[in-house]
């Protein structure tokens, strides 16, 4: 009991420094008005991204609307191709599903996207001295940023009973030649996305 009373008289071993400032402590800082030169020296260089993100930490911005419209525009401008036994052209973009984004990380800009495409194609082929009108689609199951070298296209032809298997095979091989012009348009798209 006596020991507890002694501790109470001595005071607590914990000290809150603000309450018990001593005379040897440093004086509190005084506010100073900055001159125009001081303000000019302290302005940080502009960072990428939003104003609230001056440190350049993580920030993600969706570019999906712009990217979808731009892909449709670019792929619609591929035009027609002439083959040894016919010609075909991309009529429109049936399906363009995916997303595109701009990410700012540590004050560095990075872009990315993932899309799936289906392009409507029509053409005419001469086979056994007859002109056959063919409709179909070019499907690109999935492609993303930086993977255009691995791009693959699936050719689907409309169910036409007049077309022989031999002609269908010829048409599929010819339509696969659209792969290179499509790849070039997608490379242009990637560059425009990087420049945004």
UniProtKB/TrEMBL annotation:
InterPro entries xrefs: Aha1, AHSA1-like_N
One Pfam family named in its UniProt record: Aha1_N
Domain of life assignment: Eukaryota
Residues covered by the Activator of Hsp90 ATPase AHSA1-like N-terminal domain: 60-196
Family per similarity comment: Belongs to the AHA1 family.
Protein name per the record: Activator of Hsp90 ATPase AHSA1-like N-terminal domain-containing protein
Taxonomic classification: Eukaryota, Viridiplantae, Streptophyta, Embryophyta, Tracheophyta
